[in-house]
Design a protein that fits this description.
The chain is mainly beta. It has strands at 3-7, 10-13, 18-25, 32-39, 46-51, 58-60, 68-73, 78-83, 92-100, 113-114, 118-123.
């Protein structure tokens, strides 16, 4: 069982930056693929970014590629999402998620554990 808690959301102007964190409880954090998802107003939840258990593999949605960076610190059971050059369309509730890493590693679907979400609002 893994419990996830996001933090770091807030209000920022367009062009600004935010860094989200996801703290995980439980054992063997490094055995989990971790992901960030978001759900904007009136929209379905969508994949944002994913990272493999050892941090060596990452994958991004086209909409955030080049602006967002996903990373993790397995010693601290924490994952991060550095968001730069934020746009109003990035406004959403951001969720972190976890799943056991299988071979081959996949990033977009199959997550078993979810956090409660943190609100990110980007003003124009």
């Amino acid at each position: 069982q893994v419990q996830l808690v996001e933090s770091g959301g807030g209000l920022v102007q367009a062009g600004g930056s935010l860094r989200l964190s996801c703290a995980a409880s439980g054992r063997r954090f490094s055995s989990y693929v971790m992901g960030w998802f978001r759900q904007g107003p009136g929209k379905e939840r969508e994949f944002v970014a994913g990272i493999s258990g050892n941090g060596g593999g990452t994958y991004y949605a086209d909409s955030v590629k080049g602006r967002f960076t996903i990373s993790r610190d397995n010693a601290k059971n924490t994952m991060f999402l550095q968001m730069n050059a934020l746009k109003p369309e990035d406004t959403a509730i951001y969720y972190c998620a976890a799943k056991q890493q299988l071979v081959p590693v996949t990033f977009i679907t199959g997550y078993d554990y979810w956090g409660q979400g943190t609100q990110v609002t980007v003003s124009s």
